[in-house]
Amino acid sequence: MRLFFRCTITHDVTSTGSVSLLSQRDLDGEFTLLALNSDVRALHVAEQVIREVMEKQRSFSLEGIEVVSLPAGPLLVASIQSFRRPVASEIRQVEELIQERLRDNSVRLLVRTISPLTISSKGQLLYGKAHFEELPPEQKLLREKVEQAVKREVEKRPNLFATDVDAIKDSAGWSVRVKIVGPRIPSPTEVRTVERLVGAALKQPVRLQALADTEIVVTRDDYLAVDEHIARQAREEIQREKKRSSKP
Length: 248
Prior knowledge:
The strands form 5 sheets. The chain has a 3-stranded mixed β-sheet, covered by helices on one side. It has a 3-stranded mixed β-sheet with strand order 8-9-10. About 3% of the residues have low confidence. By secondary structure, the chain is an alpha+beta fold. It contains 6 helices and 12 strands. It starts with 21 loop residues before the first strand and ends with a helix. It has 2 domains: 93 residues, RimP-like superfamily, N-terminal (GMP Synthetase, Chain A, domain 3, 2-Layer Sandwich), CATH 3.30.300.70; 116 residues, 2-Layer Sandwich (Alpha-Beta Plaits).
C-alpha cells in the first residue's frame, strides 16, 4: 500500500493582491479574524506597498520579503529582481509609506537587488531578436556583418573592448547595442563616429547604443576585458593539460 498526501496552501488576498488577513472558522462554521502579530502585519503591509509602488514601474519584481527584529525596531529585507539599481530616494518613498500605514516610524526597509544576467551561446542578450529571430541565410549573414563591423570599429579605440554586440533591422536601418568595457567610458563623440564609419562602410543607417562598464582586469602589461581574461586563462589551462597528457 502506498499513501499520498495532497496539500493545499491557501492565502487571504485583497484586491491589491496582497495577504492582509488570517482567518479560520469557529465552532459554528463562521469565519473569524485572527489579530496579526506585529511582524506578520509588517510583512503584509510591506509586500502590498512594494507591489503598489515599485512593480508599477515594470523595472522591479518582488522575489521575497522577511523581517529581522533589531533593538531599534523591525527591519524589512526585500529581495527584488531588477535590471537596474534602485536609488535611495525610491527606497525612502516606499519606507515612508510603510511607516505611515503601520503607524510606526521605527520600521526600516532594506532592499537586496538580484540582477538577472541573460546569456545565450551568442553572448549576453542585448536584443532578444538578435538571438532567437529566424532569418533567411542572407539576412543572418548581413546581421553578423553589422555586428562584426561595430565590434572592430569600437576596439580600434585604445583599451575599449566590445564584449557583446546585438543588431536588429528596423524601418530606420540598423539598431545596434554593444556592451563596452574598459578603463574609461566612451564619449558621445566616439559613439557618433562609430555610427558614421560603420554606416558608411555598409551604406545603411546605423544607430548605436553603448552599454558602458569599467569592469576590467589590469595586469602589469595591459588591460583586459574580464571575458577575455577568463578565456585566456582557460586556453592556458587547456594547453597545460595537453602538455601533461602528452608526457609518457
